[in-house]
Amino acid sequence: MRKKIDNPWFQALFMLCGLMTLAGCQSEKKQEKEERPNVLVILTDQHTNDALSYLGNPHLSTPAMDQLAAEGTFFTASYCTSPVCGPARSSLITGRMPHETGVVWNSTHIRPEVPTIGHIFKQSGYNTAWVGKWHLPESYPAKTAMDSVAGFAVVPFQSLKKEWDLGEDTDGPIADATVNYLNNYKENKPFLLTVSLHNPHDICHVPRRPDEYAKAGELEGLPPLPNNFEIDPKEPQFLAEKRLMDHYGDELLKTKDYTPEDWQAYLYHYYRFTEMVDREIGKILQALKKNGFDENTIVVLTSEHGDGGAAHKWAAKLSLYEEAATVPFIIRYKGHVPSGNIDRNQLVSGIDLAPTIIDYAGLSTSAKFTGNSLKPVLENPGERLREYLVVQLADDKLDSSRQARLIRNNRYKYNLYNHGERNEQLFDLWKDPGEQHNLAYLNAYQSVKKKMHVALDEWIAATGDDFYQWSPLPNSSDK
Length: 479
Known about the structure:
A hairpin with a 2-residue loop joins strand 5 (148-149) and strand 6 (152-154). The chain folds into 2 domains: 37-384, Alkaline Phosphatase, subunit A (3-Layer(aba) Sandwich); 392-478, Arylsulfatase, C-terminal domain (2-Layer Sandwich), CATH 3.30.1120.10. The protein has helices at 8-34, 63-70, 85-94, 98-101, 117-123, 167-183, 205-208, 237-242, 251-254, 260-290, 322-325, 353-361, 375-379, 446-463, 467-470, and strands spanning 38-44, 73-75, 78-79, 127-132, 148-149, 152-154, 191-196, 297-303, 329-332, 341-343, 348-349, 389-393, 404-408, 412-417, 424-428. By secondary structure, the chain is α/β, with parallel strands linked by helices.
């Protein structure tokens, strides 16, 4: 039994020590709370994976994105969940596939029961803010004076132009509003700030508004055509039909009669739009550093989908070719994420963004994710994130039955289209990164194709994907 202390001086001293200990604990808790990392997510739009000078592309200069990559990890086998704005964007902020978010086509709301990173971080005590393009369904919520979108407060900005369809007009004001937000952020709470920029999406308007952009003969230093420029004469009928649509991706129809020089001009403008958005990203990163947020902020840069980039004479998105399906994925968190690392092996998807930043921020949530946190493979590169990765495609909002799926493993990529002849593609990405040799109908590769198809069937069943409900094709288990 502890002996009672009767001396009032000892009792007072004992109480004082107890109060000091309690205060110390509270101080430690407060410090721990204040040291939770901020999160900055930067989204570009229609940005294919190799459109950065950091990866050795000599036809453009992207110093801001290069610096971010040099200070973090760049995943190059990074894919969108669907090569179209709204569906892919819904996946980035929920960690779920488009068929799970309910956003299979553009201009669609996320299902209300599916939480976003805005909801999750806000419930965990973060200030959550969104600047720029939204597209779920409004293109720009700031234009309609909405107070919040899916767990985010909308940061206002003002474009000088009446129409907000060009990144050339909106990206500068978006970046300026972001800089202003960072310059004036004085709260004790950490922030989740998502900045959604528009370019290099302006490339869509080069074929749509040909009189507004310089032609090949007026430009110097045209980039060369890609090695996989030509169209496979046995391309799936699904893709051949898409090339002739006058809606939901009419860029293909408008580039149908392009000469090789026209395609070089297309690439030239695409790289200039990418440089434009890089300059705005540079402003944001400078403001982050100037305001002392640089060391304790997780920064992720990615895009919702890529661009055809003249490969296979494909413009814009809405295809499963690598150029449209792949996007940059860079993560920087100083002292926590390896710097200067280019990871070419892990298969990364847009659904991995949400669980990754939640994991690094140390948040607990009951939300379910189809994606995986990248933290384990960043800390232990020898581990494997996944064996297979899937991309969905619904390429015609007027004909919802048109669907396709991509599944790839470390080496092979299998595309299955539910309409038309020649509806399968199989590529060996180790030997044929340009996807110029379809192996799907060669006897020597039938076992590989079957393995990929079975894996796709399993993934469809596991995630509740309704692909086969749209498709007249039997799944592989019925063959």
